Amino acid sequence: MARVRQTRRMDLDLDEKGLGRLRRVADPRDVWLSESTDFTPWLAENLDVLAEAMRMSLTLTGREVPVGNFRLDIRAETQDGRVVVIENQLEPTDHGHLGQLLLYASGLESAVVVWVARQFREEFRRALDWLNERTDTGVDFFGVEVSVVEIGTGGPRAPVFDVVARPNNWQKIVKEGPPGSGPTRTANPLNAARQDFFVEILSDVTAQRPAIRVPSPGKLSWLNYASGPFGNWVVFVAADGRLKVDAYIDTGIREVNENLFDELAADSENWAQRIGLPLAWQRLDGKRACRISVSHEILDLTDPDARTAARTWATHAVVAMYDALDTTLRRRARELRAAANAAPS
Q1: Per-residue pLDDT of the chain (345 residues; tens, 9 = 90+)
Q2: DSSP-assigned beta bridge partners for residue 67
Q3: Is it true that 22-167 and 180-342 share their CATH fold?
């Protein structure tokens, strides 16, 4: 595979505050020379960048997945196991890719359908809006434009994903309820109250750590944030009613998950000391994912004092765990996954 040149002239043109000017690279093909052999592998390896733009957690489960006589670019899963199909193109949207997208969605019984393209023509963006308006709550369609930005001329480059079509979450949440209750489901007041509480926590967190983005409101008793190649961070209410904050380790490869978990668990006392909270190490043998957790007492949203105390505790727990573990989780997940992919089969 051809490589982008490694040495480029850098003319950052910084102002008196040391700030440069961000500009878009006209053609993503300046970076990804081939859609199938360059962009799709890169996106599969860096799925967290797309996931962050969509404000959800995505775990890679397959590349070039056969569907009849065609091949889907990327298949993934949400944390609750919903199938995600992702079709990419480095050109403006066209009829052919729309047809393939619907074929993949039906063939794989997908719940989230993502179309990534360099540019969305208005008629195709409207088509995704139409599908979101007329499908049930079990299927969501996203249109995402990919571009590249750089600072100055020849400066560092970064990918940008702009979501131009998305489900009408506020409309769908009214119809949503407990999973499996059928197409006429009604809203679950307890889960809605918990989601409001989680957003309050992350609003407090972002005041201290602006890099952590607050996701869109969800529907269940948990909330994901700051997803990455290791998996994602979660605030949730356990079955026994305790409030918990998790580093949910799921790279898509069970062996990688276990190796990453074992590395960290081998130094558990040091991590607990750095975080300042007692950690629960859950390898979850027999399952693909692993967890590193901290927990609070049973959550009672009806008691104002208990709610305030839980909010304060959770804000501290999120910041402490994120500061201590996030960089190591992301770095080692990439390294271990790359090693696993390079190992002879």
Answers
A1: 334 434 444 555 666 666 666 667 757 887 888 888 888 889 988 888 888 888 777 888 888 888 888 888 899 888 767 789 999 988 888 888 888 888 888 888 888 899 999 888 888 888 888 887 776 656 888 999 888 877 766 667 788 888 888 776 433 443 343 333 333 333 467 777 888 898 889 889 988 988 776 665 555 667 777 777 888 888 988 878 899 999 999 887 889 999 999 999 999 999 999 999 999 999 988 888 899 999 998 888 889 999 999 999 999 999 999 999 999 998 998 899 888 877 665
A2: 70
A3: no
- Domain-wise residue ranges, the chain: 22-167, 180-342
How many CA atoms are closer than 13 Å to the CA of 198, on its beta-carbon side? 27
Architecture per CATH, domain 180-342, reads as 2-Layer Sandwich (3.30)
The size of the chain, in residues, is: 345
CATH code matching the domain that covers 22-167, chosen among 3.40.50.300, 3.40.1350.10, 3.10.129.10, 3.10.20.30: 3.40.1350.10
Q: Which residues lie below 8 Å from residue 112, measured CB to CB, with a gap of 6+?
A: 56, 78, 82, 83, 84, 85, 139, 140, 142
d(CA 202, CA 206): 6
Tell me how crowded residue 110 is: count the other CB atoms within 10 A of its CB. 22
